[in-house]
Design goal:
This protein is an alpha/beta fold. The chain is built from twelve helices and seven strands.
């Protein structure tokens, strides 16, 4: 499958994944999914032929980057899969993986919601490959950053290439895809994402503002703000984006609410919820959706 994917998207592996993901503790009796050689979840791509930079009318969509750089340590960063949460994650992934029938999983949500971190965890435990759509767009235009694409070419150019990337990925199987925050505003993108299973990572805006303020917003073209308190300005910008996107996020087939997870775990603050716990909840909600 992976060879087909690489051939279709003209992708080549970036580095051996043994240097990226830790080897499990064999004494735990983990499944062969954890014992097989790790495949790279971040792939270098040359999309010049199959996903060419495209131009078109300006879309109404808004762009954000999706990685949360200050997320708590996850199962991918630990030396062994030893915690109770890791075992729950492994068990749930083994239960749900056959039911997916190879369908892709698309993670949607506001910037800073942790889609990249959660996506990497889900891809690893399900034996899927991981893609960050923003990174693919950057590579398709010669490695230009999202911020520079907005500055040099405008948002419409970015949105057109985002749609083309999602179109190509929708023809594949066994992928977890982290999408940009604004991918949801174009109906055509939902057509592609609904070929798989779309999962909305729902994080309160104040928590997002805290996280984004802590890591900085220089790489996020839609969060540039004037002088003043950084948190207040970031929350204000996020609130405006939410007004535009909230209805679109409701198109997701699965919703993963951090407030709900925090309540279940007895946490008073959603910031106490770690990526492994979010990944577990995502698998539970996906399983419930598949049972409908």
């Amino acid at each position: 499958m992976e060879a087909k994917l690489l051939q279709s998207l003209h992708l080549t592996t970036w580095t051996g994944s043994d240097s990226v993901f830790p080897k499990p503790n064999n004494s735990m009796g983990l499944s062969t999914r954890f014992e097989r050689k790790r495949r790279v979840n971040m792939l270098k791509c040359n999309l010049v032929q199959t996903v060419k930079p495209v131009t078109g009318r300006r879309a109404s969509g808004l762009k954000v980057s999706c990685a949360s750089q200050n997320s708590p340590a996850s199962v991918l960063e630990s030396e062994t899969f030893t915690t109770e949460e890791d075992l729950v994650l492994k068990k749930k992934s083994e239960e749900i993986e056959p039911c997916l029938s190879g369908r892709c999983i698309y993670l949607v949500g506001m910037m800073g919601s942790g889609k990249t971190t959660i996506g990497q965890i889900l891809a690893e435990v399900l034996g899927y490959s991981f893609f960050d759509s923003d990174k693919l767009i950057e590579l398709s235009v010669g490695g230009t950053t999202v911020a520079d694409i907005f500055k040099l070419h405008g948002e419409a150019f970015f949105r057109d290439n985002e749609t083309e990337v999602l179109h190509k990925l929708s023809t594949m199987h066994r992928l977890v895809i982290s999408t940009g925050g604004g991918a949801v505003v174009r109906p055509i993108n939902w057509k592609y994402m609904h070929k798989g299973i779309s999962v909305f990572i729902d994080v309160p805006l104040d928590a997002l503002a805290q996280r984004l303020t802590a890591v900085g917003t220089a790489s996020r073209p839609l969060l540039h703000h004037e002088s003043g308190d950084a948190y207040t300005q970031t929350l204000k910008k996020l609130s405006k984006l939410w007004e535009v996107r909230s209805e679109a996020y409701s198109n997701a087939q699965v919703r993963v609410s951090l407030e709900r997870i925090a309540a279940k775990l007895g946490h008073g603050d959603v910031c106490c919820v770690n990526p492994t716990q979010i990944a577990i909840e995502a698998l539970i909600q996906i399983e419930d959706y598949l049972k409908k």
